[in-house]
Specification:
This protein is an alpha/beta fold. It is built from 20 helices and 20 strands. The protein is elongated.
Length: about 625
């Protein structure tokens, strides 16, 4: 199994015996071997982890630095057969000057020494210009500097010190361009609320630089004379916490996570560092990555965060529609209301948007257009919702118009093909546009991002509108937004909205049986939660078809079998590429998130590109 660009990193916080370099080296060795057994490829230890960071003026004694160097040599030798790259902190004497350093080594070879440019105390020297240089260890010339880059075929990383994250000058900003991962050696004491501040800063920088960040901080073995150290450790991927641990006792911790370096390169391509700063290493590809992925990547898993996200998105939709209505001097918002999720959300948005303009619900006209496939449940919900919201609505039965139209084009009324279905959508759009003209209003589109990605819309029908308020929301997010609104308002409106959420998604274009819809969209194209997962990971994270399949199988294994997922992915890829022509002329609509299919501000793609290579990957 290929690694799909994932790299397993580890922030390791072993037991520390302050000042005992040999004991600390033994603990580090045991931890590095355990991390390697868990297939970690990069293992980061705390700052000055061979001595402890609270030795104070004892660092001035050359004997401590010599013991640390001796322990380092022994440690490198012990781990000569370990494939993982290790980053270990220690004091280093160079030409009579003492530096706070981080040593990077692998397979018995020291790859380089990164020197701290912002040491926290006056004990250590500040590196001057002129680096990188070389340092002799066991007759080996070791690269030594302040901006080193460690590079392999699979990933590259740089080393940093915790003080650099706080520095106003941000010396790491430039270095972050050279590697997908930043390994941070730290020693952050526990003060009330201080570590959360540090964690937030690290997360923000990881997101700003679009890089992974592995951090390991000193543990409770440090001196408690003035401060306490809790051995915090975390792994970030572009600001997102993949794994986080703390130890207020003397426990030892390994914090392991799989960072998607392929995604990080997609977000921010690597730049070429100066040749003299690069140290090469080789590491095997991770064969069995275990990424932690959300079922719904468009929404936070935390309930409160999810509610806040839905409220923010709803506000963006309302603001966008209000601005367009005001600009076009439209008196009324005209909406085709089917009783489905999309038109329901558009209706709620329109009501709020008109409120922002100082207009009441009477400034909205909802139109239901029942036809051959309309079910009693959806029509009832549509009308009941508009009545409760105080919105004027009309019912225009389009059966007669369609029957005449089929006769005009010599189409058998009992031939339920694409023409039969699409004619209904186009008739409804024509009505909405014409009513908008006669009312001095704006025909508000309801189609969502998932439908646009799949081309699940009629060209010249529901694909078209005067302004589309849902175009930035995938179907799973539309559902969540309606659920949020239902919980917010409660009462009868909330009950109607809940029933709409529970109604199977259907275009209702094929004849109903005994008042019930016979079409279910997800029976035709597959579950929307899978399609939204594909949309996010392909467009937002640059995942290949085979990687999409791997991620989906891992994430949805308890819901769907492999063949179901694979078939759904085939449908997604074939429809996504073949239906681009519908998106190329899509109406204006406000974006609400990081994924957009707008041909103007989002996805730029030719309508006639071959999608065979993508399907061949499956």
């Amino acid at each position: 199994m290929p690694g799909y660009g994932f790299v397993r990193v580890c922030a390791a916080v072993p037991r520390l015996v302050l000042g005992d370099c040999a004991e600390n080296a033994a603990n580090i060795s045991a931890f590095a071997k355990e991390a390697a057994r868990k297939k970690a490829q990069l293992v980061v230890f705390p700052k000055l982890s061979l001595t402890g960071t609270t030795c104070g003026d004892l660092f001035r004694q050359p004997s401590l630095a010599r013991r640390a160097l001796s322990a380092l040599k022994e440690l490198v030798s012990k781990l000569a057969t370990t494939d993982a790259v290790c980053v270990v902190g220690l004091p280093v004497l160079l030409e009579g000057r003492l530096y706070d350093a981080a040593c990077v080594f692998q397979k018995g070879k020291i790859l380089g020494l990164e020197l701290n440019t912002l040491p926290a105390s006056g004990v250590f020297s500040v590196p001057e210009k002129g680096f990188p240089g070389f340092f002799k260890v066991n007759s080996q010339s070791v690269l030594c500097g302040t901006d080193l880059v460690f590079r392999s075929e699979n990933f590259s990383f740089t080393v940093a010190f915790d003080s650099e994250l706080f520095a106003p000058s941000q010396p790491l900003a430039k270095r972050a361009a050279f590697g997908e991962v930043i390994a941070v050696v730290g020693a952050v004491p526990e003060l009330a609320a201080s570590f959360n501040k540090f964690k937030n800063i690290a997360s923000s920088l990881s997101e700003l630089w679009k890089r992974g960040l592995v951090f390991a901080s000193s543990a409770s073995g440090e001196s408690s004379t003035d401060n306490f150290y809790a051995g915090r450790a975390f792994v970030f991927e572009k600001g997102k916490v993949l794994e986080y641990k703390k130890q207020f006792r003397a426990e030892e911790t390994l914090t392991i996570a799989d960072v998607d370096c392929e995604f990080l390169r997609f977000e921010r391509p690597l730049e070429v560092p100066p040749g003299e700063n690069v140290a090469a290493f080789s590491v095997s590809e991770l064969k069995d990555p275990e990424p932690k992925l959300a079922l719904n990547p468009f929404l936070p898993e935390d309930k409160d965060e999810r509610a806040a996200r839905c409220e923010e998105i709803f506000s963006i939709q309302c603001g966008g529609l209000a601005r367009r209505m005001a600009h076009t001097r439209s008196k009324r918002a005209i909406i085709g209301v089917s009783g489905g999720l999309d038109s329901t959300l558009a209706l709620l948005v329109a009501r709020e948007a008109q409120g922002l303009r100082g207009l009441g619900p009477e400034s909205i006209l909802g139109i239901t257009m029942p036809c051959f496939g309309t079910s009693g449940r959806t029509k009832s919900n549509a009308c009941a919702l508009m009545e409760e919201l105080g919105i004027e609505y009309r019912t225009i039965d389009i059966k007669g118009s369609l029957e005449r139209h089929f006769k005009d084009i010599s189409h058998p009324a009992d031939l339920h093909d694409a023409a039969y279905e699409n004619a209904q959508a186009r008739e409804r759009t024509q009505i909405l546009m014409d009513v908008a003209n006669s009312e001095g209003g704006l025909a508000v589109g309801t189609g969502d991002l998932s439908e646009a990605a799949l081309g699940w819309a009629t060209y010249g029908g529901d694909q078209m509108a005067m302004y589309n308020v849902n175009c930035g929301l995938p179907k799973t997010l539309v559902r969540a937004a309606v659920a949020w609104y239902a919980e917010k308002v409660g009462g009868k409106i909330g009950a109607i909205l809940s029933d709409i959420i529970d109604t199977p998604i259907s275009p209702e274009l094929l004849p109903a049986v005994k008042g019930k819809a016979t079409q279910k969209t997800e029976d035709s194209v597959g579950p929307y939660e899978l399609h939204d997962f594909f949309i996010y990971h392909m467009l937002r994270r640059g995942a290949s078809p085979e990687k999409l399949l791997f991620l989906a199988e891992r994430t949805f294994s308890k819901r769907y079998g492999k063949e179901k997922i694979k078939e759904c992915l085939r449908i997604f890829l074939s429809r996504f590429f073949s239906q681009q022509f519908k998106r190329s002329c899509s109406p204006d609509g406000v974006g609400t998130g990081s994924v957009s299919l707008s041909p103007r501000a989002g996805l730029r793609m030719p309508s006639d590109i071959s999608f065979a290579p993508w399907l061949d990957k499956l």
